[in-house]
C-alpha cells in the first residue's frame, strides 16, 4: 500500500511540474534549428519544449554536426544546424501572441561542428529585423557562441536574418524568444545587447538556467558565476521573495547568494572593459539581504558608477529583492562599479547579481506596418514563391523581388511598386491589396486570377498604373476604374481577359422564349456536324496527328497525344496544327522568299489560306544538329504561351520533310535594326519597350513554366519585332528544362553564341537561369550603345562589356549611348539602363539579379523616359496644366540648362513619334528646334501640330513671323526656294504678342 502511495505522490509531483512548466513556457518560442520538419522534444536538462524551425523559415538545409564533436555533455540543440547555402539573405519570421505589448529576450545560438565537412569556420552577419545585430565569428568548430538581445519591437512581427558576407555559409543551431514585461529593462531608445549577466557568490562554476526548478526564472535568463579574489560569498537557505516585489523576477537560486569584501572591509570595486570607447550601456544591480541582522547592525553603502555617485544610500532588505538600474545610458570605455559603506554602516557593502547591456541603436526603420501586414497576407493568400524574406524594403539592396519602396529619410519606408506578373497567382484579387495605400504601380499581369475586378482598386489614392493583362477576369470593369483611366489619373491595362466586358453591353438581356428553341435546333445540328467530322477524320489519317510532340526512342519521329491547343483565343483540334509538305510548299509559294537562315536550315515567308502571314522554318535534310534543335523547339513551343514569345501555329513531319510554322514578325529581328547604320526607327523609348518585352519573355520561361526553361541562346538575332515593334523571343532549339526547382544548376554541354555566353557556364558547364540573365545583359548593352556584342577590327576583337567599362570611366553618357539617338533621351533613364545591364554581367551567377528584378528595373527606366517624352505631348500638357513650354536642353538633362543661343534665322525641326512642337515667346528663350534657335520677347505658348517622324524646315523673319515648310531633301541647301512656295504653317508673332498682352 505504501509503495502505491509513493507512486501516486511521485506521479502527482511530476504532473504538477509539467503543469507549472507548461504555464511557464506559455508564449515562449523555442526552436531547434535543423531537426526534421514538424518534429519536437522536451529537453531532459531544462524541461524546455523545442520544436522544428520549418514553420518559421522557407529556406535552408537540415544538417548534423560531425560525430567528432558529439558528446554526452553537449546540449541537444547543438547536434543539428540549419545551413543557408543559397541566397544572400535568409530569415526567420515570428509573430508572438503577445504582440508589441511586450519586449522580447531573443537568443540565437551557434556551433559549427564541421557539419559540412569543409572544416572551414564561416563568418556572417546576424540581423534583427532591418538592423545589424552582430557579426558571428567562431574561433573553431567546437566553439559555442550565444547572442542575446532584449528587443523592443516596433511591429507585431519579429524577424531574425542571416546575411552571407562571402566568408562562408551562414548557419544557426537554436533560436529562442521569451516575452519580457515592458516594465523591466526599459531603454530610452534602441534595444539592449547582453554584455554579461552575473550571479555573484554562485555555489557552482556552471552557468545557471533556472527553468525546471520552482520558482522558475520566467524570463529564462542564463547567469554566469561571478567572483573576485578579494570578495567572499555568503548565502541563505531561506526563500527570497523575488517575484512579487520586483519587476525583474529574479530566480531564487541567483538572488539567494551574495558577495562582500573579505575581512569586513568597507569598500569593494570591480571593472569590466568595453571594446568600443564610445559604447553606451545600461547597468542593473540586484540586491537582497541574506543575513538576519542584529539590532545594532546596519548595512548601508553608496554606489558609484564610472567614478560618479550613482545611488545613495542602498540598504538591502532581508529576504526581499530590489534592483538599482540606469535610467539613461552611460558612456565609457569600461564599466567600473564601486561600493563604499557610509559612516553609519557597521557592515560592508554587498550585492547578489548584476547585468550589463549595451545599447543597440536601431538606425533603420522597418517597412510601414500596414504595408508589411498587407504583403505578408498577400504572400500567404497566394503562396508567393518569390524570395520574400525579412523586411520588404530594408536593407535597400535586399528588397523583396518584384517590389520597390519609397524612402524619405524620416518616415518608415512604404511600398510604391508591386510586380507580381507571371507569378502563378490564382483566385480572386484579395482585399489585402487595398491596404497598400502608398502604392503607385501594381502589376498582376499574366496570372490566372479570376472573378470580378474589385471596386477598391479605383479607391487606392496613389495608384497610377494597374496592369491586369492576361488573366481570367469576368464581369464588367468597375465604372470608377474606367473613369480614372479616361481622365488620365490611372494607366489601366486589361488586355487578354477574354471574358471581361469593358462596356455597358455586358449587362444582362431580357429573356426570350425563342432562345431555347434555337438552342435545341442548334444542338441537333452540332451533333450531326460532329458525326460528319469524325467520318472525315477517318479518311484523312495522315492529318490526324496529335498535338503534343514527343520523341520516339527508337527512331526519333514525332508522336502525338490527344490534347488541344489554344491559339488566339480559339481552341483548335490537333488536325489543324498538322501541315503536309505540299501545304508547306503552297504556303511559302514554293519557298519563294527566304527571310532568315541558321544551322537548322532556312526560314521562309508565307501565307496561310486565310491570308495570315507566317514564318516557316524548314529543316535542312543535311543538318543533324538542326534536327535535334527542331525536335526541341517543337516540344517547347507546344507548351509555352506568352505575349513575348513567338506564337506557334503548326508543324510538318513527313519523313525527311520537317518544318515549324509560327507567327510572322514584320519588322524582322533586333540585330538588323541595331546593325543598320542608316536606320533611325528605334528611339530610346522603343528600345526600352523592346528590352521590357524580351525580359518579360525570359521571366515567363524562368518563373511561369513548370519546370522552368533556360533559353540558352538569348541574343539580338533571336529577338523578333512585329509590325508595332513588340518584341518576342524566338529560336528555342537550344532551350533546356530545369527539372528540379531545388537545384542550383544542371551540368550540360556548353552551347550558345560567342559574345553572349555566360563565362561561369562556359568554364564549369554548370547551367542555371542566371546564364540567360548574363546574355540578356549583353543584349541590353547592344540596345544602349548600338554596338554588336563583339566588334572586329583588323588586329583585335573587342567585347562590348570591355568597351562599355572603359567608357564608363569617362562618365560621359553621350559617348556610350548610340549616336543615332542624337541625345534624344532622358539621361537618368539611360544611366539606369546601363546599371541594370552591368548588374547582369558579374562573372559569378549568384551576384546577378533574377529576370523578375530586371523586368522591374527596366519598367522604371521606361517610366522615366515616357514621363520625359510625355512632357512634350499635348495630352500630357493638358493633363498637368503646365504653364511652361518645352525648351531644348542638352542631352535630356532634367534641368533646363540652355546653351548659348544662335542668331540663325533658318533651321531644321526634327519631330519623333507623338511629339508636339511648342513655341515659347519669351525674352531670350528658344523654341524646340534641333538646329536653329529663335529669341522672342513676350510670354506665350503655342502648340504646333505636325506629322510625326519627319523633318521640317523653318524660316524666321526677324521677330515678326515664323514659317514652317514640308519635308524636303533640299533642307537648308535651297532655303531660298521655300520662300516661293506655300508654307504649312505661318505664324504672325507680332499679332500673337498683342493677344498675349490683352490677355
Automatic annotation (TrEMBL):
It comes from the Eukaryota. Residues 1-16 form the signal peptide. It is a single-pass membrane protein. Residues 589-862 form the Protein kinase domain. The keyword Transmembrane helix applies. ATP binds at residue 617. One of its GO terms (molecular function) is ATP binding. It is found in: Membrane. Its main location: membrane. It catalyses: L-seryl-[protein] + ATP = O-phospho-L-seryl-[protein] + ADP + H(+); L-threonyl-[protein] + ATP = O-phospho-L-threonyl-[protein] + ADP + H(+). InterPro entries: Kinase-like_dom_sf, Leu-rich_rpt, LRR_dom_sf, Malectin-like_Carb-bd_dom, Prot_kinase_dom, Protein_kinase_ATP_BS, Ser-Thr/Tyr_kinase_cat_dom, Ser/Thr_kinase_AS. It is an enzyme of class 2 (transferase). Keywords: ATP-binding, Kinase, Leucine-rich repeat, Membrane, Nucleotide-binding, Phosphoprotein, Receptor, Repeat, Serine/threonine-protein kinase, Signal, Transferase, Transmembrane, Transmembrane helix. SUPFAM superfamilies: L domain-like, Protein kinase-like (PK-like). Pfam families: LRR_8, Malectin_like, PK_Tyr_Ser-Thr. Its EC number is 2.7.11.1. CDD domains: STKc_IRAK. This is non-specific serine/threonine protein kinase. It comes from Nelumbo nucifera (Sacred lotus).
